[in-house]
What we know:
By secondary structure, the chain is mainly alpha-helical. The protein has a domain of 47 residues.
Amino acid sequence: MSVEMEAAPAHRPLWRRILRRRICENLATVIIGVGVVMLMQPVSLWLYGYSLITMLVGTVMFVIVTKFPE
């Protein structure tokens, strides 16, 4: 009687631990939120100017990250 067991990797590389879907999705959502806050604040014209770029980066990152495996 033989039992086949899948060998789980003992140590995953650092880049695979960092680039997990859940972490990257949360980061992209935070970037989008920061862009919205930058858009709505009344203090700095510089922050207002870069708010659209920030939201676009977050949106593109979210679209790419949703293609990652779980």
